[in-house]
Specification:
There is one protein chain. The chain is 77% helix and 0% strand. By secondary structure, it is mainly α. The protein has one domain (3-64). Helix 1 packs antiparallel against helix 2.
Amino acid sequence: MTRRRLEFIRWTLAGLSFLIAVAGVQLGAKGGWAVLWLFGFIATAFPASMLSLHLHPPKIFKFLERPKR
């Protein structure tokens, strides 16, 4: 996949997770519905964060790699 497509997927998932979080709070979900809202949030936020780390790795990872010989 191209980097542009991965960025699009990342931002789409991040937007969906934000909307799910806001909707869950605004609707005042309780009980089983709250669990479903939480599952939806986790199911969209986790892949977005993993794509974010894949596309923009933290600089500390450079120092953890073995030196090239």
